[in-house]
Design goal:
The complex is a heterodimer of chains A (about 120) and B (about 110). With about 120 residues, chain A is mainly beta. Chain A has no helices and eleven strands. In chain A, strands 2, 4, 5, 6, 9, 10 and 11 form a seven-stranded mixed beta sheet that branches. Chain A has a four-stranded antiparallel beta sheet with strand order 1-3-8-7, with no helix packed on it. With about 110 residues, chain B is mostly beta strands. Chain B is about 0% helix and about 55% strand. Chain B is built from no helices and eleven strands. Chain B is globular. Classes of the chains: A mainly beta (about 120), B mainly beta (about 110). Chains A and B meet through strand 4, strand 5, strand 9 and strand 10 of A and strand 4, strand 5 and strand 10 of B.
Chain lengths: ~120, ~110
């Protein structure tokens, strides 16, 4: 099956610093990638949809200047948490999909997640 | 706003018994539904999916039932095993789009 990786798997940073998380599709080209955040014991909340070569579409309530998303290639999307604060501590998960697969419209493949802790 | 929700936040079953996890959705325009399993500290893992033109789909030890009349999904796990212990999410995908909306999740405990 399709494999999506994330790097780093966990990161601890000081308040006020920026953190970049990478999401890669390893064996397929992902025209669309999604970024989710998940707080403990809660569900995944969609943050933004990222299409290769264009600006990301952010969900209501998600600050685009706070969470910078870049999808520069068909296998890589990055999420940068700028000026991180303790309330940004969360589990960030990406997923990737490719509409070129027959009958796979809507299927997503998830990365393993990145645990961000802001001190 | 529109959401996908679950009736039970936790479910405890005896090993070997069958498990049923329920989910309600509110968007009648959704045409694709997925069940995911998430273990602690990991990303969601696809279990089974179903499209709105079906009402039942079976996989290995799992069955998904879709009742569009009452906007209800269920996941049935046969002969539940300790390895099935995890949080299970239902998710919906809106027609014509790729955005997947997750429900609240149910934690399944399997007692040995």
């Amino acid at each position: 099956g399709a494999v999506v990786s994330q790097h780093p798997s966990w990161v601890i940073c000081k308040s006020g610093t920026s953190v970049k998380i990478e999401c890669r599709s390893l064996d397929f080209q992902a025209t669309t990638m999604f970024w989710y955040r998940q707080f403990p014991k809660q569900s995944l909340m969609l943050m933004a949809t990222s299409n290769e070569g264009s600006k990301a579409t952010y969900e209501q309530g998600v600050e685009k200047d706070k969470f910078l998303i870049n999808h520069a290639s068909l296998t890589l999307s990055t999420l940068t948490v700028t000026s991180a604060h303790p309330e940004d501590s969360s589990f960030y998960i990406c997923s990737a999909s490719s509409p070129s697969w027959e009958g796979t419209a809507g299927e997503q493949f998830f990365g393993p997640g990145t645990r961000l802790t802001v001190l | 706003g529109e959401s996908v929700g679950l009736h039970l936040p936790t479910l405890s079953v005896q090993e070997g018994d069958n498990s049923i996890i329920n989910c309600a959705y509110s968007n009648s325009a959704s045409d694709y539904f997925i069940w995911y399993k998430q273990e602690s500290g990991k990303g969601p893992q696809f279990i089974i999916d179903i499209r709105s033109n079906m009402d039942k789909r079976q996989g290995q030890r799992v069955t998904v039932l879709l009742n569009k009349t009452v906007k209800h999904l269920s996941l049935q796990i046969a002969a539940t095993q300790p390895g099935d212990s995890a949080v299970y999410f239902c998710a919906e995908n809106k027609a014509g789009g790729f955005k997947t909306i997750f429900g609240a999740g149910t934690r399944l405990f399997v007692k040995a």
